[in-house]
Amino acid sequence: MNCAKNAPAAPQPLSNLSLESRNTFGLPAIAELAYEITSPDQLPGLMAHTLSEGGAWQVLGGGSNVVLPNMLSGTTLLMNISGREIIDSNDQFIEVAVGAGENWHDFVAWTLEHYLPGLENLALIPGTVGAAPIQNIGAYGAEVADYLDSVEAFDCKEQAFVTLSKADCHFAYRDSYFKQNPGRFIVTKVVFSLPKAWVPRLTYVDLTKQFADNASASALEIFNGVCKIRQSKLPNPKVIGNAGSFFQNPIVDTTQYQNLLALHPNLASYPDTNGTRKLAAGWLVDQCGFKGYRAGPAGVYEKQALVIVNHGGATANDILQLANTIQEKVKECFGVELQIEPSVL
Ligand code: EPU
C-alpha cells in the first residue's frame, strides 16, 4: 500500500524561467531556478535541500513590489498556495484564513461578496495575500495590520512551521518582523480578524471629498470609491510597468518638520506616531519637477510623482539610476533621504 498518496507532489524545478510577465514592472528577469509552491508541505524538503547547499533564495508573489535583476540567481519560490475560508466567528469578530498565493484584491472583493466588511480601503492594491504582512500594505487610512490576527510561515532558521501573532509581527509603517528578518520566513497563510461592528473609514482626504455627501456609505461603495481613486492616480501595470509607490513617505522629527514648513508652507505631510511627521514623498519628488520626467526607458508617471514607470525595455539598472537621480535631488532640495519601497533583489 502506498502510504504517501496524500503527500504533495514534489515541485518540479524550472530552469532559466522568464519572470517578465511575473513582475509588474515588466523587467526582463530570468530566474536561474524556480519552483511553483502550491502547498506548505512542499517547503520543508525543498528548503532543507536549498539551505544545505547554502544557496540564495527568494519568494515571488505577485511581483508587484520588486525590482528584479536581469539574472535572478539561486532558488525562486513562485508562491501559489490558494484557499480562502471562514474559520471562526464570535460576537465580535469573524476570522478568515487565506493562502499566501491568493491575489490580494480578489480576496478583498471576496470578503465583500460574503458580507465581511473591513478591508474595503485596501482595494486594488496589487500583489498577493502573503506579501501583504511583509511590508504591512496600507492605503486610504487603513493598514493590513489593523485587520490581521496571525501569520503562518515556514521559518528557515528553525526549519519549522511557526504561527506569529499580530504582536509578534512588529508592524509599523511599511514594516514588519518579516521585513526586519530578510531570508528567514516564507509566509504560507494569513488569518484575518474582521470586526462585526463595522465603521466606515473616510478620514483620508481623497475619501472625505468623494463621500462628502454620503457619510453613511456602505463598505461596497467605499470599495468602489477606492478603486476609482486608485485608477485615476496610479498606472495600470498591464498598460505601463510600475511597482506602485517607489519611495516610502519619509518620517522626520518635529524640528525638521517645522524648519521645512517654514521654508515650504505648502509641504504635504501627515501626523505620525510619537510626535513625528510623515512627509508625502510624492509631493517632494513633484516639487523637484520630476512628474513626467524621462530617463531613457524609465520615467516618472505623469499623474503621480511617487511612481516610477517602465516605458518599455527598461532594466533594473535604468529604474535604479532614475531612482538615484530623484533621491539626490530631493536630498539637495529638502535635506530628506528617500528610501526605496520595493525590494531590490
Ligand atoms: N502629491 C503631489 N504630487 C504628486 C503626488 C502626490 O503633490 O505627484 C501630494 C498630494 O497632493 C498629497 C500628498 O502628496 O497632498 C499625498 O499624495 P497621495 O494622497 O497620492 O498619497 P501618498 O502619500 O503619495 C500613499 C501610499 C500609497 C497609497 C496612498 C493612499 C506610500 C509610500 N504610499 O501615497 O501606496 O495608495 O497613500 O493611501 O505610503 C503603494 O504603496 O504602492 C501605494 C500606492
What share of the residues does DSSP label as strand, in percent? 25-35%
- What percentage of residues falls in helices of 4 or more residues? 10-25%
> Structural class, please?
alpha+beta
Which value, in Å, is the CA radius of gyration?
21 Å
Order of helices and strands: EEHEEEEEHEEEEHEHHEEHEEHEEEHE
Distance between the termini: 45 Å
Reported CATH architecture of the largest domain: 2-Layer Sandwich
Count of separate DSSP helical elements: 8
Q: How many E strands?
A: 20
Shape: globular
CATH class designation of the largest domain:
Alpha Beta
List unreliable stretches of 5+ residues.
Answer: none
Q: In CATH terms, what is the fold-level topology of the largest domain?
A: Uridine Diphospho-n-acetylenolpyruvylglucosamine Reductase, domain 3
Q: Strand order, biggest sheet?
A: 6-7-12-10-11
Number of domains: 3
Compute the average pLDDT: 95
Which ions, cofactors or small ligands are bound in this entry? uridine-diphosphate-2(N-acetylglucosaminyl) butyric acid
Q: Can you offer a commentary on this structure?
A:
The protein is an alpha+beta fold. It has helices at 43-52, 104-113, 177-180, 205-210, 219-233, 254-263, 281-287, 316-334, and strands at residues 14-18, 30-37, 57-60, 66-67, 71-79, 84-89, 93-99, 138-139, 142-143, 148-155, 160-165, 185-195, 241-245, 251-252, 269-271, 277-279, 294-295, 298-300, 307-310, 343-344. A hairpin with a 3-residue loop joins strand 6 and strand 7. The model has no long low-confidence stretch (mean pLDDT 95). Uridine-diphosphate-2(N-acetylglucosaminyl) butyric acid binds next to strand 13 and helix 7. Residues 139-140, 204, 233-234, 244-245, 248-249, 268, 280-283, 286, 291, 304-306, 341 line the site of uridine-diphosphate-2(N-acetylglucosaminyl) butyric acid.
